[in-house]
């Protein structure tokens, strides 16, 4: 798949001397949903803000659709829509004026039909003449999305789009994001909700303390994450793993009293049944049997901790 954003060896030190990003290397593929995960202060907003031209890059480069975000700022920025974390519109303006103005800002000719459809899609059409200050928090969020999409960008950034959002709006937002992706828009979002990334993203990146510690396809990540273990407490210590069971790649505990079988969560139950039958055939008796699996949360905490 073609890359739409190319981040090369990007580092950023704020004037305070704080280094927020270190040698970030990242490629975003055209048409994907990419989720950037990381704890508070990891550098997610800094990275997005640099790509969107709001914060000056330190060293390194960023290409958006092949355009350098510093040297070709206007053309690069025109391709991007940004839904920021915080409200960034005048509360005295109406919804319609806000989105129309935003479209004009990017040099796009007026297109009332497009804006009408956009507001309808976001359930904002009946509020088009309301001032922003008269809207609920959820509606204000929708306005931010409408504003970001007013100039029909190819790439949409959403910074913590569902923080503090109720279940219904969250569901609507995800539906809309999927529709946008289906229409060819590339989506990059940050989130603290791992389940959300799991549900939505094609690929996942994990950032910690300014470093990108992992980028992977969600499906392969899920495979790696989806490990389970079967623990068998043996009646008698086993001197060694019987050669007949080599295919299972079992582990034997240091006291030789526990056999551990690690398998993929997706794996067929039948394998376990066969293993138990074989153990029985070999006369290996066990007094207890249980399974354990690492939660997604555990794995991410592990990943984030490892990078310290
Ligand atoms: N203008 C600034 N001057 C100095 N330091 C800054 C500035 N902006 C951000 N930082 C610092 O850079 C680090 C990364 O901040 P950033 O907002 O990118 O994190 P984040 O991953 O988006 O966090 P959160 O999940 O809390 O939004 C933080 O330690 C923050 O305090």
From TrEMBL:
Enumerate the SMART domains for this protein. AAA
- ABC transporter domain location: 5-234
Q: Which UniProt keywords apply?
A: ATP-binding, Nucleotide-binding, Transport
User: Sorted alphabetically, which CDD domains does this protein's record hold?
Assistant: ABC_DR_subfamily_A
Q: Name one GO molecular function term.
A: ATP binding
Q: Which SUPFAM superfamilies match?
A: P-loop containing nucleoside triphosphate hydrolases
- Put simply, this protein is called ABC transporter ATP-binding protein
**What is the originating organism of this protein?**
Rheinheimera aquimaris
